[in-house]
Amino acid sequence: MRWSQTFVPTLKETPSEAEIASHKLLLRAGLIRKLTGGLYTFLPMGLRSLQKISQIIREEMDRAGGLEVLMPALQPPEIWKESGRYETASDVLFKAKDRSQREWVLGPTHEEVVTSLAASEISSYRQLPKNFYQIQTKFRDEIRPRFGLMRAREFIMKDAYSFDVSDEAAQTSYQSMFDAYVRIFDRCGLKALPVEADTGVIGGKFSHEFMVPAEVGENDVVYVETGDYAANVEKATSGLKSPLADQEAVEVSALSAVEKFATPGVKTIDALAKAPFNVPANHQIKTLVYVVEDKPVIFLLLGNDQLNEAKIAGVLGSTQFRPAEPAEINDWLGAYPGSLGAVGVDDIPVYADDFLKGGYDLTTGANENKFHIRNVSVERDIKVKAFADFRTVQAGEPCPITGKPLMVQSAIEVGHVFKLGSKYSEAMNASFLDETGKSNPCIMGCYGIGVTRTLQAIIEQCHDDHGIKWPVSVAPYAVCITPLGNKPESEVMKVAESLYSQLTEAGVDVMLDDRDERPGVKFKDSELVGFPIRVGIGDRSLANGEIEIKPRGGELSKVKVDDAVKHVLDWIKSQ
RNA sequence: CGGGGCGUAGCGUAGUCUGGCUAGCGCGCCUGAAUGGGGUUCAGGAGGUCGGGAGUUCGAAUCUCCCCGCCCCGACCA
């Protein structure tokens, strides 16, 4: 491609809408332009990279046995009602009406469509396994689109759905997708870490997210340096023992009676930990009130622990919950946050973190404003419906596998593999007859990659102060030929044209900067757009029969004109 | 949805508090010249519903109200 013939609107200054490096560079390098919040046009350079990523995904999906299809983005609400997600996913569903007032939804994902396909087309175990995938535009009514392509209203996703005859077979499908994902991100030049992910209300062990460590990530990943453990913080556990485990075993009957004491002005764990009370946070009980499916529920944790909502969802089997409002809490418990406790509560279900099990000599709110109570024994004084792991792991705690300190790092989720089981196949009657003629629901898995988000994650991971540093595999063009001057009859331009056609014939994607711009402009632009290798041709070096080769971010070297093509090809091959 | 910030030419911005002549500057763009190895220089030029509406006023980018849009934080830790 000739620079003068394509469209690469680079910007010297950053539009004020961009906050993070990758978003700024997407705009400055002329890859995308915003139509409105969360909606972007891909310009030639951005689209080329996107297509290269898509192609890598296709090749690896095909290699793993995936079958490419294309499903409708516009979908009838009926299938969403059938799966039950018309209600549960309604927050993200874009809805529209046609001329006869019939309702439609824009697909945020395609489990319903693909399951309905399987329901009508799959009838025998002989047809299984199958793995259908597509690269499609998804629509989600995001609460807050942000960071350019990172969280958009409309975005491109690769989604795959596997159908198997059994759990064991589904695990094989799952593993095959997992392996494909490792190869895909590797080929994209992206360091993406597979981590154990929360399985939400479906449960089970089979869910991994592929995370790109980045300051601007929206997820926190807990991992150990040895690589033996990595999990989303929503899912992560640690090897830490409860501080209360050190308490001597004492008969409940031997414990002191609970005692109420005044705590004017004390509304936080921290305040109670300070003088004059000096109750260590890990000997306080934190009382959190939630509204779960319109009913109050209490969660108890040690004072220095933080509640993990994803774990709530797992234990309760529901995502329909929210923190209670202070007014609601006052109605139910007779006190406001800051003085809450579960002692004596028997009409509201109380769930307690495992760390509280058997604890005594604890302090908690009295359910009377400005009062707390001490000498609380969990076993004696609190009616706990169930104990479970509700706490959020913190950096520095021991790894559950190696015992080494855990690290916490924010990361961008670029991929997710998930064993679905039979949730959708049962709801939508996607079943098959086995060898014995018995009908069984298909065991499903789903596997997503945010294609547009991956593009941005690559830029977030591969850039410097000058611009993008594309991995060759996903660069819009691998090579940028930069003649200094653009007179067609000049020796410089003749050499440039010759290299351009030779490299193009060799199958390399080449950009020829044939613009009538000064050298500085061309250099700056080629670095901003981020071509992996630049071939500089000017009078000076040409006088010695040489041209200049400069890998992006690497050292400049001079080579003979006749060796130039070989050098470039070798360099690309070495990547 | 809650909180905060912003909205002036394609981009970045000054001016707004304290109302007042023709809304200023840089980049980019157009014309011409010089220059030609790191966003070069000089001269000339085009480009503005000051987000929209209503109001206050002799007079509004500036003050008031409403609306729209964009960005950030939050929507768990009592």
Please, could you describe this protein's structure?
Helices cover 27% and strands 27% of the residues. The chain is an alpha+beta fold. The longest helix has 21 residues, at 167-187. The protein folds into three domains: 17-190 and 422-460, BirA Bifunctional Protein, domain 2 (2-Layer Sandwich), CATH 3.30.930.10; 243-388, YbaK protein (Alpha-Beta Complex), CATH 3.90.960; 477-574, 3-Layer(aba) Sandwich (Rossmann fold). Helix 1 (21-28) packs across helix 12 (451-461) and helix 2 runs antiparallel to helix 6. The strands form eight sheets. Strands 3, 7, 8, 9, 10, 11, 12, 21 and 24 form a nine-stranded mixed β-sheet that branches. The model has no long low-confidence stretch (mean pLDDT 92). The protein binds one RNA strand of 78 nucleotides through strand 14, helix 14 and helix 15.
Q: Secondary-structure map with pairings?
A:
Blueprint: H1 21-28, E1 32-36, E2 39-42, H2 44-63, E3 67-68, E4 74-75, H3 77-83, H4 85-88, E5 94-97, E6 103-106, H5 111-121, E7 130-139, E8 154-164, H6 167-187, E9 193-196, E10 207-213, E11 219-223, E12 230-232, E13 259-262, H7 269-273, E14 285-292, E15 295-302, H8 309-316, E16 321-323, H9 326-333, E17 350-353, E18 362-365, E19 371-376, H10 378-381, E20 386-388, E21 407-421, H11 423-427, E22 431-433, E23 439-441, E24 443-450, H12 451-461, E25 463-464, E26 467-468, E27 479-483, H13 491-505, E28 510-512, H14 519-529, E29 533-537, H15 539-542, E30 546-551, E31 557-560, H16 564-574
Parallel strand pairs: 3-7, 15-17, 17-20, 27-28, 27-29
Antiparallel strand pairs: 1-2, 4-6, 5-6, 7-8, 8-24, 9-10, 10-21, 11-12, 11-21, 13-19, 14-15, 14-16, 18-19, 21-24, 22-23, 25-26, 29-30, 30-31
The structure holds one RNA strand of 78 nucleotides.
